[in-house]
Amino acid sequence: MKVYHGSYLKIDGIDLSKCEPRKDFGQGFYVTGIRKQAVTWANRMGRKFHVNGTVTEFTFFESAFADKKYRTLRFDDYSEAWLDFVVLNRNFDSPIPAHDYDIVEGPVADDKVTARIDAYLRGDITKKDFLDELRYHAPTHQICFCTFKSLLMLEQTDFCGVTRIEETSEHIVEALVAECDLSETVAADLFYNSSTYALLTDISTKNYEKRWREIFDDLKKELQF
Prior knowledge:
alpha+beta; four-stranded mixed sheet; 13% strand
């Protein structure tokens, strides 16, 4: 399974001790099977550190879920069990680590979901109302590698197409800003939610081999600019 990690720098080695605690599934190295999600996070982190964000591609060996050497936990969707687990890991009164799983997979508590979790913890909404809201939330995905042993199931992939996609994307967003009089935020949202971007990141199309101007022209046609 191809998975991705979005950051402000390319990952050359994973040091779990440097990973932040109190995350959804605890302290660990996080990846996602949704490349668009990784790109969004890379762009966000890039703006925070005033650099170009980058996406690192890995291969995750899913056989880990059937291997008895690994303690694993999977949440297929937002659920009461998922909520309780996220609250446990984010609780500052809980020990670190708050669990002994090697690998945990499930949906993400993004900014909007986190705000509603806070409301739930304050007693402003019930657990039932919170979970009902999540039925309409866009699909998200993350896998957390919580132990050094678990990292054996993750292999970095050397693929020049990833770099080409990132470079092309940067050029196109810059062109939207300069030529279409859009803010960077609006330009990024339009591009990363477009069918043109979906085709660009679909490796089977090999669209990443095209000149960025050609892809930009396709985008303008799609957006009717």
